[in-house]
Write a structure and sequence with these properties.
With about 180 residues, the chain is α+β, with helices and mostly antiparallel strands. It has a domain of about 100 residues: Sandwich (Immunoglobulin-like), CATH 2.60.40. The chain contains four helices and nine strands. Strands 1-2-7-6 form a four-stranded antiparallel beta sheet. It has a three-stranded antiparallel beta sheet with strand order 3-4-5.
Length: about 180
Amino acid sequence: MALLSRYNPWSALTDLESQMDQLMKGVFRGGVGAEQASKAWTPAVDVFSRDSDLVIRAELPGVDPAKDIDITVTDGVLRIRGQRQFEQRDEGANYFRMETSYGAFERSIPLPDGVNIDDIKAAHKHGVLEVVVPGAAQIAPAKRIPVELDEGGGQQTIEAQAAGSPKAGAGAEGEAGPSGTEGA
């Protein structure tokens, strides 16, 4: 079944205008490679405790730690700043897709009060930066936070633990369990 549509003599001109807009955007932004290079890049960061230390591990492949990474502590916040430089591509290679991001990055990790910033150590190995804050995991203990539920008639309180204990919300005697019923 063929559908009839009215001929619009301006449609070809509109399509041409759209294509020219796309072309000009690419030219003034420096082309597709430079557009990809200017995208924001944020490295993956893991923050965990090991013994009594707080460990921050950042994946920074392709970053020279000697000249492209800056680690500072200001007002109780650890900042990891740096830049992954755009590499000149081999003109002889035929790239079909470039997804590697380049550019400046910054990650901020709040530190607990009482941290001695002179004891903080950083090491870089195989593209992974590891910053160790000694004793910081001991300083910030887990705290139980009560969660109030309002299920229609009355309010009930369950306990949730910030550190993610397996007993969180398990329903101790006299407390409401995860289903909102009284514990046994």
